[in-house]
Design the sequence.
């Protein structure tokens, strides 16, 4: 009975906070949703938000501020979840620059972003579109931009060999050859990716396929029944600046700490990206309702997969559906649970676990309101069956051994060398890769250029929610994962593709290799 009363009080308090935040402007939440644009973002919305600040809020901030910040709280109160601006144009301008971002009220944190102070716009692309991008690097250091998950030529892929010098411009062009899926973009400059990504240089890409009859009946109205979620952890020091060691670590979703989101009581779709530099997220609903997984990195699954919790490792993406029809008028939570020593790849070192296995945090507060007039209330029992390959079709099986730490993290006993191509792969080869983790920490293994299918994990078939097209796979300590893929369409003697651990600290000190695809 006490727990029931506590839950009711908690829900009432959350609703009261939202009502107070909206006081005097009933359209505030609606106004905060960025409009879809076909050109470069403007600063008008930021200016409008700043003008909405009142002297009363400033006074409250001053009263809450203290000199002793050693005990930084998780959040300073519920904050409406931020949404990235949407760019639908095939001509895209991205500017990488420094900035400052207010994560905690009254405190600015030094950050970096694309077209803003932190993170980047949501790039909405269509299959078969020709995309022209201008990347302006306004940083005082070199960078790259990797289109993580997209099937593009190696000179466009944005790996360590496609450097954008400080204060210079890069203009790649490519055709979208991917299925409807969720990808992302981020720096891949060797030795400095972690610092740049952690500072905020990351953004999501959603690819649409208007010819897909299945996609047409799924939720797909952005910021109504479809949302991007970029998940990170950030550690703050006593000055509210980012640190990579120590500090107070909190989850940050779309650049928001302690976010709240109002959703309709119906099927709602999320594109979820773990953009953290070294830790996992394990998601569940506070109601105990299953999460419905409908897609992995490369597109939809063959059928929806129902899971009570969903672990997402670094660089992974999942598309999920939450069925909220039964919760109108209620406050529920998307929660995060991660076990000590294993909740993040790193197991005790940098990027190690952060919560005990029995602890959960209410990562996003969800206020469930009435359904929309065009609510989607069911999803099909069958989704997409993309072409795959049988083991008998494989031209070769390659073994890759992940090891460390020692002085370096390594693949096949060697650290990364920018001037050495570790593999030459014939164009159109179908290959099985067998990844064995000989270290005592897990590693999220990522390969550029291709999407693969997991054949087995320690000899067992992958769980249903991992049975789709992927480009990142979690390899636990002592485990072996096999996957199958094909290297097609693009070949180059000059520009290699990469394969590596997506814990960026591990990648930086050696756990990366490169391959060229060659025409025979």
Sequence:
């Amino acid at each position: 009975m006490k727990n029931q009363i506590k839950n009711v009080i908690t829900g009432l308090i959350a609703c009261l906070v939202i009502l107070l935040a909206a006081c005097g402007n009933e359209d505030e939440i609606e106004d905060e949703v960025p409009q879809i644009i076909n050109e470069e973002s403007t600063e008008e919305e930021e200016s409008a938000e700043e003008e909405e600040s009142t002297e009363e809020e400033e006074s409250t901030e001053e009263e809450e501020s203290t000199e002793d910040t050693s005990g930084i709280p998780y959040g300073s109160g519920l904050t409406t979840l931020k949404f990235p601006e949407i760019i639908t144009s095939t001509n895209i301008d991205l500017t990488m620059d420094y900035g400052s971002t207010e994560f905690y009220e009254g405190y600015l944190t030094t950050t970096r972003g694309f077209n803003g102070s932190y993170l980047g716009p949501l790039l909405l692309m269509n299959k078969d579109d020709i995309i022209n991008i201008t990347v302006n690097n306004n940083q005082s250091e070199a960078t790259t931009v990797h289109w993580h998950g997209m099937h593009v030529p190696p000179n466009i892929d944005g790996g360590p060999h496609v450097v954008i010098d400080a204060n210079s411009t890069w203009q790649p062009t490519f055709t979208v050859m991917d299925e409807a899926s969720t990808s992302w973009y981020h720096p891949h400059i060797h030795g400095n990716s972690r610092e740049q990504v952690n500072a905020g240089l990351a953004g999501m890409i959603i690819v649409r396929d208007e010819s897909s009859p299945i996609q047409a009946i799924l939720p797909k109205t952005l910021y109504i029944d479809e949302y991007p979620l970029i998940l990170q952890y950030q550690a703050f020091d006593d000055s509210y600046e980012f640190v990579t060691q120590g500090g107070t670590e909190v989850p940050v979703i779309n650049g928001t700490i302690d976010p709240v989101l109002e959703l309709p009581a119906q099927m709602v779709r999320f594109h979820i990206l773990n953009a953290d530099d070294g830790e996992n997220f394990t998601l569940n609903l506070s109601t105990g309702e299953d999460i419905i997984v409908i897609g992995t990195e490369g597109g939809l699954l063959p059928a929806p997969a129902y899971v009570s919790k969903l672990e997402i490792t670094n660089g992974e993406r999942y598309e999920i559906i939450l069925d909220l029809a039964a919760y109108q008028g209620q406050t529920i939570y998307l929660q995060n649970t991660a076990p000590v020593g294993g909740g993040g790849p790193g197991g005790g070192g940098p990027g190690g676990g952060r919560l005990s296995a029995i602890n959960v945090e209410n990562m996003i507060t969800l206020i469930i309101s009435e359904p929309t007039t065009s609510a989607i209330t069911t999803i099909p029992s069958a989704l997409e069956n993309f072409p795959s390959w049988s083991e008998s079709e494989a031209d070769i099986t390659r073994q890759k051994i992940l090891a460390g730490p020692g002085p370096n993290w390594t693949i096949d006993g060697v650290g990364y060398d920018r001037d050495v191509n570790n593999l030459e792969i014939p164009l159109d080869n179908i290959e099985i890769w067998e990844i064995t983790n000989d270290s005592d920490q897990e590693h999220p293994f990522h390969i550029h250029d291709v999407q693969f299918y997991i054949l087995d994990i320690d000899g067992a078939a992958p769980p249903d929610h991992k049975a789709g097209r992927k480009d990142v796979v979690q390899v636990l300590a002592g485990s072996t994962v096999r996957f199958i893929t094909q290297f097609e369409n693009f070949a180059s003697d000059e520009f290699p593709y990469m394969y590596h651990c997506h814990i960026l600290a591990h990648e930086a000190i050696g756990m990366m290799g490169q391959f060229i695809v060659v025409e025979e």
User: Anything to note?
Assistant: The mean pLDDT is 86. Residues 23 and 433 are 57 Å apart (CA to CA).
